[in-house]
Amino acid sequence: MRLFRSDELLGIARETMEFVLEASEESHPDEYMGFLRTDDARKLDLDRDGQVITDVLVIPGTESNPTSASVRTHMKPNDMRAVGSVHSHPNGALRPSDADLATFGQGQIHIIVGAPYGWGDWKAFDNEGRQTTLDVLDVEVPDEHFFDFTQEDIDREIGEERRDDGGFLSWFR
């Protein structure tokens, strides 16, 4: 395992971009808002150093309407994988507003998706609001699970605790 990751952003996974377009369309006529997260390119079987956007984090309590989306910033996790944001403009405008520019400093890349939310209806911007290129990559996005155990693991653990004659958990029985 490497101690330091390359900060070069190689692009966004096609599956992730499809999710962004669908989520934006489903939110219409209100804005959609999320934060972009990356995975190491080598984890995605790319033979290059760098990061690929593979995930969109939606913050609980995000409020949106046809002209804005607001996030409860205290709910945003301190995430080493976060690289920027994505939001929609239901009016179809593919340029950042003054309010957008005020938040762009908090990330490396920002995507704006406009109605009607097709493949040609989005643009990427750097943290200063300048349009930039973001490649769409055909990589397999790993299935991630918030919990890395199954119900069978829980049942087995409970069964072992019941058979245990001592130990810390026996105090609570």
Automatic annotation (TrEMBL):
SUPFAM superfamilies: JAB1/MPN domain (SSF102712). GO terms for molecular function: metal ion binding; metallopeptidase activity. One of its GO terms (biological process) is proteolysis. It comes from the Archaea. Residues 10-131 form the MPN domain. Keywords: Hydrolase, Metal-binding, Metalloprotease, Protease, Zinc. This is MPN domain-containing protein. It comes from Halorubrum lacusprofundi (strain ATCC 49239 / DSM 5036 / JCM 8891 / ACAM 34).
